[in-house]
Amino acid sequence: MSGYLLSIRTLIKLLSYYHYLIRLSVHCFNIIKIRFPYIILILKVYKKYIKILTMRVGDVFKTYADFEEALSQYKKSTFVDFYIKDSKTAKSQIRRYPKLANSSEQLKYYYVKLACVHGGSYRKKNSCQDLRSTSSMRQGCEAYIYLIANAKGDALELTRMNDEHNHEKSETLFSHLPNQRRVTPQEKMEVLELMKLKANKKLIQHKMQTKTGKVINLKDIANIYTTGKTPSHNSLSEIVEQLQNTYNCTVEISADSDQNLIGLFIQDKIMQNTFKAFPEVGNIEVYWKLDVYF
Ligand SMILES: [Zn+2]
């Protein structure tokens, strides 16, 4: 009898256990049903994110633009930059590889090898007389990505890759690389306009950085000005002529053996008279790192 009662108790326990399980399942099902669109969306985003962030051997791209888009995301997420080190266009290789006859123009390359911008080593030539300190990004990094047209010739396939970089990777360093600092023609025009209005270079820098979100150095601003301004027609000889004829100045040009300008001596009428009156007094005016643009 007791054994019979026990089995009933066990049965009740089991039933309540199954009941609990069923309720739990229904509850989970309801959650999934309500959240289904969100779950799908999350999965889609995750899939895209994973697809974009990784670049692996075996990846296939229908067009070079597709690869560029993926590379752009890959660069932003891994903080590394690449440049095209070697390539052959699909057009140039059609005779050699007939499969390329079916390739679309958007494939662009038969093969393309991209190397890390920190690849290669920098050695100053012995013949170089330039004593300025120069900076180079070359650090011997061997990371690269290699794509080649697939067997059908209708897509580019990533067949080889080395993603081991021998240098530090950080968002800050990445944002300071020249490619990321590059400004658009419109942004260049804006900088030039502001420079013409004699705006402060640091304020221009701040404005452009806030507007574009790019890291822009003072050197970049100076380069934009140097390369973008309309060339001056005043040659040195014209300036000397003007100083002598219009302003009655005594002008002497100092040049080295290679005819490189070393200095310019200018003495106007007031200076000449002062020098004549007080030859024993010497005035020295020193300029150090003057900002020539303002
Ligand atoms: Zn590298």
Automatic annotation (TrEMBL):
Residues 55-167 form the ZSWIM3 N-terminal domain. InterPro entries: Zinc_finger_SWIM, ZSWIM3_N. This is ZSWIM3 N-terminal domain-containing protein.
